[in-house]
Amino acid sequence: MGDYDDEKPSWREIDKRRDRSSHVREEKRQREGQVEDRWNAGRHKAALEKLFKGDKGTLEHEKLYNKIHKTYGTSTFLTTVQKYVGSFGPPDDTSTLLLVLDTRDVEIMMLAMEKLQHIYGGVSAREKEDIRRKLSILALTDRSAKIKERAAEIGEDLRSRP
Fold this sequence. Notes:
By secondary structure, the chain is mainly α. The protein has 2 domains: 2-53; 58-160. Helices cover 78% and strands 0% of the residues. The chain starts with a helix and ends with a helix.
């Protein structure tokens, strides 16, 4: 009881005593190990995801995918999309598929609409609304009767889903 009887220790001294405790050191080591383990787990998870993506996990895919977004609205957009679809098939995400619907290439647009119909159940409410709107616009305004008809069919199917 000597320390407290003579003089109260400062907070700094109390903290120093805590840091000297063998329990504190052990806890710090455990936390440091957890941070490193989480970092390694993240790296492993990313590597596995890339592996399971197959061709879509390559650097070439990433470059072409980014080029689709960069060339949207330019004269090279259609050729970029054709090259991407020829190599990797239709994109997997909603935003890129919606861009692809602006190519005016009937085959590519049909692929994109089928893919949108397929992934519709797993997207957010906002993306569902975007898909329905884009399809309704295509059903009303596209030059191709085939696209108009298919967009109307898919749009009707999607409106009936929850």
